[in-house]
Amino acid sequence: MKGWRGTIIRVDLTNEKITKQPLNELVAKDFIGGRGLNSKTLFDEVKPGIDPLSSENVLCLAPGPFSGTQLRLTSRLEVSTLSPYSYILGDGNVGGSFAHHLKKAGYDQIVITGKASSPKYIWIENEKIELKNASDLWGNTTWEVTDILQKKYGKDISVACIGQAGENLVRFASTIVDKHSSAARGSGAVWGSKNLKAIAVKGTGNVELANPEEFKQLAQEDKEFFLKDHLQHEVIARYGTHIGMMSWCPGYRYFEKYLSANEIPENLTPEAWKKYEIGRMGCFECPVQCKDVNRIPDGKRAGEICAALEYECIACMGTNCGIEDPIIIMEMENLADKYGMCVIPLGNTIAFAKELYNQGIITKEDTGGLPLEWENSDSQIELIHQVAMREGFGNLIAEGMYSFAKIIGRDAMDYCYHVKGFSRGPFPSGLFALAHATSSRGADHLRGRSWAYGENDPEVFPILIKIGMLPPQMSEDPVKGLTISERATTLTDSIGRCKGAVNSWVCAVPLVWKYPLFDGLAKLLTLATGFDFDAAKLEEIADRIYTLERAFNVRQGITKKHDWLPQKPEVKRTPQGEEEVKKHYEMLTDYYRVHGYDLKTGIPTRERLESLGLKYIADELEAHSPYKEWDGPPLWPLDKYPHGGKRA
Amino acid sequence: MKINVKVVGPLQQYVKKPKSQWDLPEGTVVNKLLNLLGFPEKIRKMPIMVLVNMKFCKSDVKLKDGDEVILLWPVGGG
Q: C or N terminus of chain A, fewer CB within 10 Å?
């Protein structure tokens, strides 16, 4: 195959058996790679209703067809599983150099099943794949594991691994790649449940392309664009996602309010971080370098490097928890990376606990004596250690927001502003809320980019369209605009391209600056693979992937009821609140109509599934419906989890 | 010289003097215009995107008579 390497690695941990399987050409053409390929594998191999922390769960890692080629910003790895946190599809897209190496080594996907009887890691060096004893790695942080494996195999490798949080089955534990990049949605706990500590990879082969000369030329033009583009050069390369503090309205003290740019603490503005910065970094050979490299100047971690600090950490672990000290925020970022946890659910669940504490719904009796006043950073850092170790009150937080609220009971659920277990806060009805409500991995800002900016000001879209930052189709009705952005992010995750460093308005559609919407991407895919792609075909592929993901979640008990609008208790059932809900459901109905979902249930119709070549899914949904209604993941008794370990 | 100014999106809320047309001395740079619009100090330190005649520019660019200046946040919807 051209573009793809044509081989999937299958690792059966129970039987300690590694096999290589050919990539099905039809599946590759229909689902492309990365997220599309992983989601298809999960639908086919994960039975609905299983315990995600059991050996029955499946873990997939996949680069895209562009990974390992001359096209830059393509070392993106999709890590997918049935999430032990949300109990729906759980995938995270992560940078670093793993996707590049895996593809160069000769592989389009790794599928991991079963459970090893003792800790293991996987070493891949081109054709060689070995399952190795990881007893000496178990108990170490992600940074230590990476250092140990790099010492053993050389610096020119990439390491994906888990820290103590994954080992202890913290439900929002991440897969950490190359120390600083986190694939979220709880995949780290699935690694831990399978006794898998790490995968190290070194790839030196070539990705064969159908038309290498023309592809190389376009890749060069693309690289030059990123080097010269004003937005990339002046904003993204300088501030990365810190710009979110200006215009993405971070929550303050568990969404008591959303901070406008003028309300951001002086110490947390994008420019304020510059005093700690000693350099910039990026994923494999990225011309943008959107990540900062900071040195912590004082405090307990003085001298430690804090790299790739993002908006999400500052907002979720910082302002939303009432913490405004940048030194503490850097310390928390490093703890999250070392233990291997996603800062969004970690921060927002701690903020939720602080809210309950300050409301008097929980007390020191619940927290094991930890005072959770907003500004108490010592307690918050202690709590992060406890979460990773599943000790004390941290054992409850490690369950994640929704399960934590269920276990606590009382009025906790009234304050649990989640969609399918994930929280990004309560938002007024509109595109932003609709995108969060319908995302195929729970409340999320990176599935359908929500265009909240344009929603609030009709003047913005025409200007952005005129200067080429938005495709003209975005001027049509809002729900259709959301669908376009869903397609763009689905394709981006599937081809293996970054959607972060690239202009957020257009979601990293390659060469969008030169060709309308998906035409540039189709041209590149055709040159890479030798198969004919065009924009219409790509739209159909994106819809196929997204609809399959919806069907996966339907099997987990998701229906229209769960595409809801979370609201604060003081807003619920007020005339204004009810008006918001009414508006939300009107938009949701439009959304279902555009997507071909049943308007009453939110389940993809047979007609829609068949039109996308997914008849087998229609048959399965029909045969087994109705599924047991979603109510979060199956809970374990808290004393049954592994716990403890060495503190970072 | 006459300069047309449009501030769009959430950035609008920080403009103290929301005038759409400004009469400025020849050679005035964008930075000066940003000061005249009355953005608070904190906002001025953030990377406001400047479009002059629909092209991105740095804030030290000199303006010309008839220029249309559009100001906005660089990225939205996160």
A: N
Chain B residues close to A269, C-beta within 8 Å: 42, 45-46
For residue B3, the surrounding DSSP H or E stretch is strand B2-7
Return d(Cα A172, Cα A186) in angstroms, integer: 4
**Domain containing B66: what range?**
2-72
Please indicate if any CB of chain B lies within 8 Å of the CB of A465: no
Q: Do A457 and B8 touch (CB under 8 A)?
A: yes
Q: In this complex, how many residue pairs, one in chain A and one in chain B, have their CB atoms less than 8 Å apart?
A: 105
What order of strands is seen across the sheet that includes strand A181-183?
Answer: A128-133, A120-125, A196-202, A158-161, A175-177, A181-183
Q: Is residue A636 part of a domain?
A: no
Residue B74 binned pLDDT confidence (cut-offs 50, 70, 90):
confident
List of chain B residues whose C-beta atoms are within 8 Å of the C-beta of residue A238: 47
Residue in B closest to A432 by C-alpha: B77
Mean pLDDT of B22-29: 95
The answer, for A504 touching chain B at a CB cutoff of 8 Å, is yes
Q: Which of B42, B56, B76 sits opposite A231 (nearest CB)?
A: B56
- Least CA distance to A501: which residue of chain B? B75
Task: Give chain A's domain count.
Answer: 3
Mutant choice from B42, B60, B71 vs A, greatest count of A C-beta within 10 A: B42
Q: Determine the length of chain A.
A: 648
Q: How high is the mean pLDDT in each 10-residue block of chain A (648 residues)?
A: 98 98 98 98 97 98 97 95 98 97 98 98 98 98 98 98 98 98 97 98 98 94 83 86 87 95 94 96 92 95 96 97 98 98 97 98 97 97 98 98 97 96 88 92 83 64 77 72 85 87 44 64 94 96 98 98 96 95 96 97 98 98 96 97 96
- A119: domain CATH number is 3.60.9.10
**pLDDT recorded at residue B76:** 58
Residue range of the domain that includes A560: 431-624
Neighbours of A397 (CB within 10 A): 25
A439 and A412 both lie in a single domain: no
The model carries a pTM of 0.96
- Asked if the structure places residue A209 within a domain, the reply is no
Please state the ipTM of this predicted complex. 0.91
- On whether residue B78 sits in a domain, the answer given is no
d(CA B13, CA A370): 40
In a domain, B18, yes or no: yes
Joined together, the tokens standing for residue A239 give 């501030």
pLDDT attached to residue A512: 47
Per the CB < 8 A criterion, the answer to whether A135 and A119 are in contact is yes
> Among B30, B36, B28, B22, which residue's Cα sits nearest to residue B50?
B30
Q: Which of B47, B58, B77 sits opposite A270 (nearest CB)?
A: B47
Q: Give chain B's domain count.
A: 1
CATH number of the domain encompassing residue B17:
3.10.20.30
